[in-house]
Amino acid sequence: MKAVEANLLKFLQKPAQFVIPIYQRPYGWNLRQCAQLWKDILASEDNSVKGHFLGSVVYIEKGIYQVTAMPQLLVIDGQQRLTTVSLLLTALARALKKSGSEDDRHAAEKIENYYLFNGMETGEARYKLFLTRADKETFTALIEDRRLPDNASQNIITNFGYFEEQIKKSKLSPSDIATCLHKLLIVDIALDHQHDNPQLIFESLNSTGLDLSQADLIRNFVLMSLPREEQEKLYEDYWYPMERRFGDANYTELFDRFMRDYLTVETSNIPNIQDVYASFKQYVQNETGKRTLRELVGNVFTFSGYFVKLVFVQDEDRDIREAVQDINALRVDVAYPFLLELYNDYTTNIITRDEFLEILKLVENYVFRRSICGIPTNSLNTTFATLAREIDKKNYVESVKLAFLLRDSYRRFPDDEEFKREFMVKDVYNLRNRNYLLRKL
Among 5, 9, 64, 386, which is least packed, fewest CB within 10 Å? Predict the structure, then answer.
């Protein structure tokens, strides 16, 4: 590892392309973070301020000694800073061009040729910063000042617009702002792929306060260790389609929930939502030698499809949709590990459609009867986490019924007499599932 203090703009002048690997999360800085960067830049106007530290940029020097092609530096940490500064530089170049001054137009050309483009290159190598698939088209369209794609990245557009507006309102001229940018400093950290472990360094950076979700960490863990061609293949075949399933707005929260439920299915242990990444790492290590990484990720992809059908009620079959909607109305997410395995057994023809529906109704019945009878819900998570292990899949429906009936005490399935007795006196108007009850009646 080599770590040195560096001027950010001189760092961007490197004869190289900064590539954001596909396992990195999409660009995610919001207006609050952009406002802080803008404030930091304006603070540099003070002549007594010699420089302003922006953070670190960590990258792998892959191909740094190539002479026939543009060296590619794989950015492990710092893509949010690099992308945001590039958006600001783009907005600044446009403002300089509009000023009408020959000096300002020349300054705009220097910004583009030094910090946004590799001037002597063509094709993809022309771009100084090469983002992931989710952001690449929007970013390149912006810096080239051409029409934005239909599925444009909203964060990139919003933040670019923010910097355009701030430059217009600023008491500083665009050339003064450019001078302030020259005072931004970073720590330039170059890794050697043969001697440094990027995954361990990434985890260490995250532990010191980088705001990465469990979903980010899992994606990076799965893809980071692979050669780039394998990364891209696995990402295109499984990970990218899975991200699209969850939707951009809900991806992080839903993926963390899904992975907790998936690990519960696979291990019969329920990980804490904050420890999903650590549990997944342990799971992958336990599976080493049993399944290839591609087979494991393929299985995760398959089960994510069931999870999305449950959360968004998307099954093609109307009766199944209605049954899932009823379960969701009871707000019993802890049943999802069992339902995921149930969905898999239905999809792989271990059970029929009618059997699938009958078991869904049993789950609904079990949860609702218990709520009427005032039985505490804190045992439901372990009940559904272990239920699948008690099933004889050659006699599926009967063994599910038996598993429910054998539960006693606070895990019991209330019989008709208990349910009727409690229903007659229950204050249902203060029941959490009141609306469900009235709709069903």
Answer: 5
Query: How many degrees, rounded to 5, is the angle at CA 245 between CA 330 and CA 361?
Result: 30
Token code pair at residue 30: 């919001």
pLDDT, tens digit, 9 for 90 and up, residues 50-61 = 677 888 898 887
pLDDT band per the 50, 70, 90 thresholds, residue 204: low
Total-model pTM: 0.73
| Residue showing tokens 């945001």 | 84
Tokens found for residue 269: 């242990």
H or E segment and range at residue 440: helix 434-440
Residue 247 CB partners (closer than 8 Å, separation 6+) = 254
- Selection from 301, 300, 343, 296 nearest residue 323 by Cα: 343
8 A C-beta contact, residue 115 and residue 64: no
Q: Quick check: 122 and 130 in contact, CB under 8 A?
A: no
Residue whose tokens read 């599925």: 151
pLDDT digits (tens, 9 = 90+) for 98-133: 887 888 899 999 999 999 999 888 888 899 999 988
Phi then psi dihedrals of residue 216, to 5 deg: -60, -45
- Whether the Cβ atoms of residue 56 and residue 77 lie closer than 8 Å to each other: yes
CA distance 203 to 81: 19
For 223, the token pair is 């893809």
Collapse the DSSP code of 176 into the 3-class scheme (helix H, G, I; strand E, B; otherwise coil) and give the result: helix
